[in-house]
Amino acid sequence: MEYISTRGSAPALDFEGATLAGLASDGGLYVPREWPRFSADEIAGMAGLPYAELAAKVMHPFVGASLTYERLLELTTQAYGRFSHKAVTPLSQFDEQQWLLELFHGPTLAFKDVALQLLGLLFEEFLSRSDRNLTIVGATSGDTGSAAIDAVAGRANVDIYMLHPKGRVSDVQRRQMTTVLAPNVHNLALENASFDDAQAIVKRMFNDRAMTDRFAIGAVNSINWARLMAQVVYYFAAGIQLGAPHREVAFSVPTGNFGDVFAGHVAARMGLPVARLIVATNVNDILHRALSSGDYSQGQVTPTAAPSMDIQVSSNFERLLFDVGGRDGKALAAQMADFEATRAMQLTNAQREGAATLFQSARADADEMRQTIRWAWENCGELIDPHTACGLFAARDAGIDPAIPVVTLATAHPAKFPEAVERATGQRPGLPTRVGDLFDREEKCADLPGEYDAVAAFVAGHATPKA
Predict the structure, then answer these.
(1) Catalytic entry in 112, 166, 203, 416
(2) Is 203 tagged catalytic?
(3) Which helix (H) or strand (E) holds 187?
(4) Alpha carbon 464 to chain centroid distance?
(5) Is residue 57 included in any domain, yes or no?
(6) Helix count (H) and strand count (E) of the chain?
(7) CATH number at residue 314
C-alpha cells in the first residue's frame, strides 16, 4: 500500500513513512493510492468478532509490509484493552430508527481515544526500529489534546507539544491535558487565539525548513492518516451489528475538522453499505455551507457550548475534495493555495456532485442543541454532550427512509461538558470513577502568545534534535 499527497508533488510513502510524517512535504495530506475493498461475504464473516480482531482485519490492508497481521493484532489488543466497556464502541438505541454509537469509553472519555491509543503504539513501534526521536506538534479544540497526551505520555523517543486556545476548552478538557506531568508532555495555551489559529501554526511548522531540518516533526491531529484509519473500524462495528452487509446504515457525525466523518467515507469506499453520511455542525458551519451550496469560505469563529466544533477551516475536507474531484493533485494544490490566500473557495461541479452521492449536512444552533439534549434525556433517559446533540439533531431531521437505521456518533462523555448538560436537563453528569480525582490534580501549562514565532521558539528550546 502506497500513500500519495492530495497536492500531488510529495514523494509516495509506505504506511510507516506516512504515519511518522503526518503532513506531506508539499502541504497536502496523505491518502492511499487506491482503496482496498471487502466483498459482502468478507464483511459478513466479520460478524461477532471482538473489537480488537475486527480492527486488525479492517486495517490490515492499509499497513502493507509495515506490520504483519499478527503484530497489528497484538497492537490493537493492547490499545483497546484500556477501554472501560468490553465492546469498546457499544451501540445503544433511542427509538425505532435512531441509535447511539458510544465512542467515549476510552481513558479520556472522547472518540479520539479510539484512534490515538493505537497511534501512540504505532509511533513507539516504528521509532524503535531506528532509535529515532519524534517531536509531535498538535493543535486541539479540546479532545484531541488529552487523548494524544494520554497515548504518548512516558513513551520512549516521543515528545509532544500540544497547542490549545486559552479559555476556549472546557475545564475537564483542559485538566485532562495539563494534569499529565510526564516529562515528554508540553501543554501550550495560546492567548487570544482560536483553534484555527493553533492549527495554522502547526501546519506552518511542518513547512518551516528551519524546524524540520533540526527536528523530526510528527502529527497526531487527524491530518495523520493512521488516525483516520483507526476510526474506520467503528463504522464497520456498528454497521455489521445493525445488519451489514445485507442492510444499509446511515451515520450522523458531529464534526468540525471532518476527520471523523471522512472515516465513514473510507468505510463506504471499502464496501460497507453506508446509505448516507450526515455532516452535523454547530453555528460554525463552513462544512454545512460547503456541502449544501458549494461555498467553502472562512468566517469568524463563534464560541459555543460545543467547543471541539468551533472551527472554520476543516483540514480533512481536502481529502474528500481530492477523492471525489478526480484525484487531481495539481488542480487541488492550486485550489487550496487560492483558498489559503483568500480564505474563500467555491467547490467545483465535480466535487459537489461527488460529495452529494453520499453526504448531506445540517446546522444546529444553540437552542436546537439544548433542545436535543433535553429530548434525549426526557424521552430516552440518555444524557448526551453538546457535540453529540448536534449529530442527533441532524439525524432526527435528515429524512432518511424509516427502514434504514441512523447511527449518531456520541463523540464525548457528557461529564466533559457538565454545565451545558445541566442547563438543558437539570441533571449534572458526574465523571466516571476512573477520572474522578481530576480536579484534585496538579496542573502544568505554558501560556504563550498566539503567534508562530513564540511557539516555534518554545519547541526549539525544548525538543530533541535529530540524531
Answers:
(1) 112
(2) no
(3) strand 185-191
(4) 27
(5) no
(6) 19, 15
(7) 3.40.50.1100
